[in-house]
Amino acid sequence: MFSIDAMSRTPVYEQIENQLEKFILSEIIREGEQIPSIREMSLELLVNPNTVTKAYSELDTKGIIKSVPGKGYFVCSDACAILKNAVRDNLEKFRCDVHDMALAGITKSELYDIIDSIFEDMKAKDKVKGDNLQ
Amino acid sequence: MFSIDAMSRTPVYEQIENQLEKFILSEIIREGEQIPSIREMSLELLVNPNTVTKAYSELDTKGIIKSVPGKGYFVCSDACAILKNAVRDNLEKFRCDVHDMALAGITKSELYDIIDSIFEDMKAKDKVKGDNLQ
Amino acid sequence: MFSIDAMSRTPVYEQIENQLEKFILSEIIREGEQIPSIREMSLELLVNPNTVTKAYSELDTKGIIKSVPGKGYFVCSDACAILKNAVRDNLEKFRCDVHDMALAGITKSELYDIIDSIFEDMKAKDKVKGDNLQ
Amino acid sequence: MFSIDAMSRTPVYEQIENQLEKFILSEIIREGEQIPSIREMSLELLVNPNTVTKAYSELDTKGIIKSVPGKGYFVCSDACAILKNAVRDNLEKFRCDVHDMALAGITKSELYDIIDSIFEDMKAKDKVKGDNLQ
DNA sequence: GTGGTCTAGACCACG
DNA sequence: GTGGTCTAGACCACT
User: Fold this and answer.
1) Helix and strand tally (H, E) in chain C?
2) When you count CB atoms within 10 A of the terminal residue's CB, does the N or C end of chain C come out lower?
């Protein structure tokens, strides 16, 4: 389920954070649910427990997960809301990226096509999920 | 013209690279033109000359600028083409970003609006530039 | 009557101790009185009996409660005196806190007001208690 | 200047944080000023550099200090304001403490006396500081 | 020189 | 079993 790209320039602990956040936003891991323990995660990813600890405690600071010593880490009840707001706060970065691509001669319709295809994919997946729940 | 954000997490030498690349793509600095010398740049930005040297030599490696010993650094004649291709190679990252935003509940029309407004701005600026050149 | 804050950083067994001590100081539980058995307490709080055991044996060590084998746990006859002395020993911490607040620009009159309001509240409650006992 | 109490129950990294915050509030370390490097601090306190790192990065997260990689850590320009607000947010804890002491039979005038003596001390020290600056 | 990341391995407190 | 803290020592990127 989780995986690390050792060649990536983004730190391992940040990769863990990003993956967890994505799973929570995709509701693959639900609010209130327990996430893998530090030791489990460090075994699965073959990284040092301290590295997982760093990732988890940063998410704790952000209010995404909560540690219950002796029991484990749990997703906060308002994790999705926090994550969604964080993305919205970063829309400025998206504007910069689009501007750069426009400068580089990428056309508006190219961008539209990419966006359309992604939203199509997501709608399809949502449908499957809905069918499974029936 | 150039400026450094000391609080930013991106290294100074990378900030210099990014700004130069943007100026070249925007044709604020034209192909064949000479860019500020390492000395000038380090004085303007109040950074260590070594830092500017690192930025310039990376751009040299990429084929964006060329050092002409005894004269200075000049923008390569195919700098724009190289930069545009580099952006195109990074479209994958754009897909990921859009996917994340979709997960976070940002609507397709919101993204469309942002893109539209940026392309509008650029068209307006191009027109002004054209008028000035007449 | 008792309750546990699972999200708190203070250990569960310490929360139990604190609550019992507060109840004894407030004379909600009187000296000589029997307190809930380990079993009862663990059921009411939905915590592991071992946790309650740890809390009780620490209070036992402090001389606040005594185990009477086969009967249960009882509040010692000098529990209040012991607890009051313990608080007095901690006045040094109070001094530090006040000092910190003074550094942070909290005025003397603000502190006075807080103290006044608390002593008012307690006098009011004492009166009610007295009336009820009549 | 800095010191660690190895016997204390509060973690070493938290002791470092607390001391730095106190120095900043007392203006012994001023806003914008550089604080001891991780290596310096770890040598002075005889603790592992990682422990200092943890303290510093928590303060960074709080917005008290800012890391400038390759240069060091610096006190943020609004550090005092942040710290003062944090203390104010914790007044609730102060209320609880006063309540506990009231229960334990500590009189209002005892508390008043403590507060008075602390404010006297601080006024005296401020005067000395003022005289030194003349 | 600075901070940033990571590993390996240890001990403790809690449940 | 869980998380929390700490040490020792390493390598990297940046200035």
Assistant:
1) 6, 2
2) C
Q: What is the chain A residue with the closest CA to C10?
A: A69
Which residues does chain B have within 8 Å of residue D66's beta carbon, measured at their own beta carbons?
7
Range of weakest confidence among A88-102, B75-89, B120-134: B120-134
pLDDT digits (tens, 9 = 90+) for D77-108: 999 999 999 999 889 999 989 998 888 888 88
Distance CA C20, CA C2 (A): 8
What are the residue ranges of helices labelled H in chain D?
A: 12-25, 38-45, 49-62, 79-89, 91-103, 108-133
Query: Which nucleotide has the shortest C1'-to-CA distance from B16?
Result: F14
CB C19 within 8 A of CB D96: no
Question: For residue A4, what is the enclosing H or E element?
Answer: none
Q: Give contacts of A 31-90 with C, CB under 8 A.
A: 66, 68-69
Closest alpha carbon to C1' of F8, residue: D48
CA distances from D124 to C109, D128, D129, D130 (A): 19, 6, 9, 10
Rounded CA gap, B25 and A97, in Å? Answer: 14
D95 burial (CB, 10 Å; 0-12 / 13-18 / 19+) is: middle
Please give the DSSP secondary-structure letter assigned to residue D65.
E
Q: How many CA atoms lie within 13 A of A57 on its CB side?
A: 11
Query: Whose structure tokens read 């006992």?
Result: C133
Decide: B97 and A97 in contact? Cβ < 8 Å. yes
Give the separation between CA C37 and CA C14, rounded to whole angstroms: 17
Neighbours of C17 (CB within 10 A): 20
Asked if the model's pLDDT at residue D68 lies above 90, the reply is no
Name, in order, each residue with C-beta under 8 angstroms of D58's C-beta and a sequence gap of 6 or more.
D13, D17
State pTM to two decimals.
Answer: 0.85
C-alpha span between A90 and C54 (Å, rounded): 48
Distance (Å) from CA D46 to C1' F11? 23
Q: Which of D54, B117, D19 is nearest to A111 (CA)?
A: B117
B39-98 per-position pLDDT tens digit = 888 888 888 888 899 899 989 988 899 988 888 899 999 988 888 888 888 888 888 899
Neighbours of A110 (CB within 10 A): 14
Q: Please name the residue ranges forming H helices in A26-90.
A: 38-45, 49-62, 79-89
How many beta carbons lie within 10 A of that of residue D113, not counting itself? 11
* Protein CB footprint (7 Å) on chain E nucleotides: 1-10, 13-15
